[in-house]
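Holo prediction — magnesium ion.
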Amino acid sequence: MKQKILHIDMDAFFARVEKVDRPELRGKAVVVGGQSERGVVSTACYRARQHGVHSAMPMAQARKLCPEATFLPVRGERYKEISRTIQKIMRSYTPLVEPVSLDEAYLDVTGVLHSDNSAYEIARQIKQEIKKQTRLTCSIGIGPNKMIAKLASEDCKPDGLQEIKEEEKDNFMIHLPLDAIPGIGEKTGRELERIGINSIKELREAESNFLYRELGTRGIILQKRGLGEDSTPVKANEETKSISNEETYPEDLEDRKIIKKFLFRLMEKVGRRLRDKKLEAKTVEVKVRRGDFTTLTRSYTGRRHTDVTERLWAAVVALFEEIKIDARGVRLLGVGVSNLRPAASQEELFEASDEQRKARLNELMDNLNEEYGDQTIVRGGTIIGQD
Ligand SMILES: [Mg+2]
């Protein structure tokens, strides 16, 4: 499946939140920004923008341009609260969400697509869900990379939804103004103009040797962007820092075999949650609370991330070997994983070695079977089923 990236950007976010919270402001110009003498505009609603007000403009100037507007202070906590709601919606579609600011994020949906068109469908649903839960609109651009996705969303604001497919990107790019390209501001724009480049088309067609001579590596990078190329990955922020599970037992446990069996059950649950969240872990922790309430934790950080139960279990076993069980018994057990990151894409996983993985799991099952008896085989079987 080809890579599909979404760029989601809320429309006039702060100003719209104020309008939702204060219905009397609807249909009126609203400017949110610093209230001090030197304050600047954070967000102007579209009505205020029609008067020439824009973000980063001194508030004093905004007041002159649009005296009838309502000028409001920034209510950071409220915007954060809504931002969390929006991010939660996004994460319900893919764990690969990279927030850029409170009102903007990139999503990599490649791994969750069923067909080539389903990125559009996901975007449509996200728009709908955000509207339903927050009464706010957003614009979503879909592209084969982050840059195209962002250009596509900017191009369809407000309340827009636009997909630019790989085969459409050339045509899309050449119709944009030169300064639409990230990194081309006023200064670079003038530099390009000086060397005879006034459009994206001219930037694309320039000799790369010439660009390199005039602008150095920067020239090459800008040309790549002009060609619609961008290889920066969507980096999910690690919202889930750890996953753990613990159980308290009605009677203190003393038998190592039985304790191991319970640990395996906990590990299995943790592993399943890890895979459900499409994450993999590098650190495994085992917690043991004894009958006298003394608590031990042991953790192990491997060299690689993994979401394979066999690997996680091997770490749990090794950690448990270090813990002495005595007459005090065990009243609580816990297993946790941390040091998380998004799992490799589904494709990678399947491609890698489905057979090898199955083989490893089979081996694991056999070992468990030998050690713990029939009940465990069934559990091992459910692991295979999931994977
Ligand atoms: Mg925005």
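READOUT: The chain has three domains: 1-175, 176-226, 242-386.
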